[in-house]
């Protein structure tokens, strides 16, 4: 059990027989009255978010989540396949769990998969990943007084804004938190 006042982003809760991950929290302490915690919770089954407010002293049922280092193997339709390199145990997760982050996954990539009762419920990508450019716009010479960029598409389908000198076949490093270009790979 955890007090609502101690909730932080990333905590997994069990409410109304559903699993929720805390996406955002705001502590509210009015001049008079009791403190409360406003939260944004994501339903781990559907991906929908809901707003909930709890009294700061309210006890909530947080669950234990195991974190395993896994390698991404391949995608089979809507299922993503992973393997623990130490035990060779394989796991499946729905592509819906990853949402748009599925474009960051590439074969052999190591990441952290969070499990509850044998089911993948959450993940943590590495901070930066190196990708090969599959397609790049043609650089156009012109106004270069500011920061000039172009769009490229990586081997996984991820679209990234990069400097003009990056071409098809080059390796680039991308920040998985915001999809920004970090440098050459």
Basic shape? flat
Q: Which whole number gives the mean pLDDT?
A: 88
Order of helices and strands: EEEEEEEEEHEEEEEEE
Query: How many domain modules?
Result: 3
Derived from helix and strand composition plus strand pairing, the structural class reads mainly beta
By CATH reckoning, the class of the largest domain would read Mainly Beta
Predict the CATH topology of the largest domain: SH3 type barrels
Please mark out the parts with pLDDT under 50 across 5 or more consecutive residues, or reply none. none
Oligomer: single chain
What would you say the CATH architecture of the largest domain is?
Answer: Roll
User: Approximately how much helix is present in the residues?
Assistant: under 10%
* CA distance, first residue to last residue: 44 Å
Would you mind describing this structure in some detail?
Helix content is 2%, strand content 52%. The chain is an all-beta fold. It folds into three domains: 2-60, SH3 type barrels (Roll), CATH 2.30.30.30; 66-124, Nucleic acid-binding proteins (OB fold (Dihydrolipoamide Acetyltransferase, E2P), Beta Barrel); 128-184, Nucleic acid-binding proteins (OB fold (Dihydrolipoamide Acetyltransferase, E2P), Beta Barrel), CATH 2.40.50. The strands form four sheets. Strands 9-8-7-10-11 form a five-stranded antiparallel sheet. A five-stranded antiparallel sheet has the order 14-13-12-15-16, with no helix packed on it. Strand 10 (110-116) and strand 11 (119-124) form a beta hairpin.
Topology:
Elements: E1 2-3, E2 12-15, E3 18-28, E4 36-43, E5 49-55, E6 59-60, E7 66-76, E8 79-83, E9 90-94, H1 95-98, E10 110-116, E11 119-124, E12 128-136, E13 149-154, E14 159-163, E15 171-175, E16 181-184
Antiparallel strand pairs: 1-6, 2-3, 3-4, 4-5, 7-8, 7-10, 8-9, 10-11, 12-13, 12-15, 13-14, 15-16
């Amino acid at each position: 059990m955890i007090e609502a006042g101690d909730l932080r982003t990333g905590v997994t809760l069990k409410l109304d027989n559903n699993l929720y991950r805390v996406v955002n929290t705001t502590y509210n302490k009015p001049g008079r009255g009791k403190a409360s915690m406003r939260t944004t919770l994501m339903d781990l089954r559907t991906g929908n978010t809901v707003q909930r407010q709890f009294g700061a002293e309210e006890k909530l049922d947080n669950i234990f989540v195991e974190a395993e280092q896994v390698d991404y193997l391949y995608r089979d339709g809507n299922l993503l396949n992973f393997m623990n390199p130490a035990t060779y145990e394989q796991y499946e997760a729905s592509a819906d769990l990853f949402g748009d982050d599925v474009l960051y996954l590439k074969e052999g990539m190591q990441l952290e998969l969070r499990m509850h009762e044998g089911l993948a419920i959450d993940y943590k990508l590495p901070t930066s990943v190196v990708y090969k450019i599959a397609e790049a716009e043609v650089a156009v010479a012109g106004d270069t007084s500011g920061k000039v960029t172009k769009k490229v598409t990586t081997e996984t389908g991820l679209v990234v804004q990069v400097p003009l000198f990056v071409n098809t076949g080059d390796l680039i490093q991308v920040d998985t938190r915001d999809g920004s270009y970090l440098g050459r790979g």
